[in-house]
Each structure stands twice: as structure tokens, then as C-alpha cells.
Design goal:
The protein has about 140 residues and is α+β, with helices and mostly antiparallel strands. The protein is built from 3 helices and 5 strands; from the N terminus they run αααβββββ. It has a 5-stranded antiparallel sheet with strand order 4-3-2-1-5, with helices on one face. Strand 3 and strand 4 form a beta hairpin. The longest helix is centred in the N-terminal third of the chain and has 20 residues. The radius of gyration is 29 Å and the shape is elongated. About 10% of the residues are buried. The model has no long low-confidence stretch (mean pLDDT about 80).
Length: about 140
């Protein structure tokens, strides 16, 4: 069958009248899965409880900080501070870039430069280097 412009337009209008576009309904499945994944991640972060690490003496903290500074190592610091529910805050992770009297300067990986009083520290530990590659390089 050969269509001229008028009959083609009529065919299009008939199809348009019969076809019901679902609009955004066709995208709901994608939205729901992405939205659910984000909500799950936020829920896990909200419900995570940081365990209390062993309380260190000021001398132990000082020795660990000095060793990390001299060897340019990453450290994790658990502060004495608690959140509103009485749980310990997330560890501060970074490298020490300086020290003055009873204060250290930490280049924290997420927050940038921080200065901390030594008496604010509950526990400190030297971390292993960050893994850059997760797979072995094959030669």
C-alpha cells in the first residue's frame, strides 16, 4: 500500500490515539533500584557503631605519633569525643605534618588539615600503606 502525506498523517494520528505512553512509569524501575541502593548505604552508615579501642597513655600516644611522623606513615586516630548516641566517632585517618607543644597537625584524608590536642586522642595506630592497585601486575 502506498501512502500519501494525508493518509500517512491519518495513520499516525490513529496510532497516537490508541497508544498510551506510560511516561515516567517506564523509568520507575531504574529509579527504585538506585534509590533503594542509596537508602541502604545511608542506613548502614547511620547504624554503624564504632567500637571503643584500648585507651592509650599519653606516653604511648606520643611514641606512636613520633614514629608515624618520622617514618611518614598513615595513622588512624580515635578521639575521646562521642556522638549524640554515646558512640565513638569515625577514626581520623591521615598523616602527621607537624607538631607544636601539645598539638599535632594532621593532614586528614577526607577533611584536610586538622589540628588536635594530644589529650583529645583516645587511641592511635599506624596503618599499612594504602593499596593503589587491587590486582597483581603480570609481566
Amino acid at each position: 500500500m502506498i501512502y500519501d502525506d494525508e493518509s500517512a498523517e491519518q495513520l499516525f494520528m490513529d496510532a497516537k490515539r490508541v497508544y498510551q505512553d506510560r511516561g515516567m512509569m517506564k523509568w520507575i524501575g531504574f529509579y527504585l533500584s538506585d534509590h533503594t541502593a542509596v537508602l541502604d548505604k545511608e542506613s548502614k552508615e547511620r547504624n554503624r557503631i564504632n567500637d571503643e579501642k584500648e585507651q592509650m597513655t599519653v606516653e604511648e600516644i606520643g611514641e606512636t605519633l613520633q614514629r608515624a611522623y618520622l617514618q611518614n606513615k598513615r595513622i588512624a586516630i580515635q578521639l575521646e569525643a562521642l556522638d549524640s548516641e554515646g558512640n565513638f566517632l569515625d577514626d581520623l585517618v591521615g598523616k602527621i605534618v607537624g607538631q607544636r607543644e601539645e598539638r599535632i597537625y594532621l593532614d586528614e584524608e577526607e577533611r584536610g588539615m586538622l589540628h588536635l590536642e594530644i589529650e583529645q586522642i583516645h587511641h592511635v595506630e599506624v596503618l599499612n600503606p594504602k593499596k593503589i592497585l587491587s590486582q597483581k601486575i603480570i609481566k
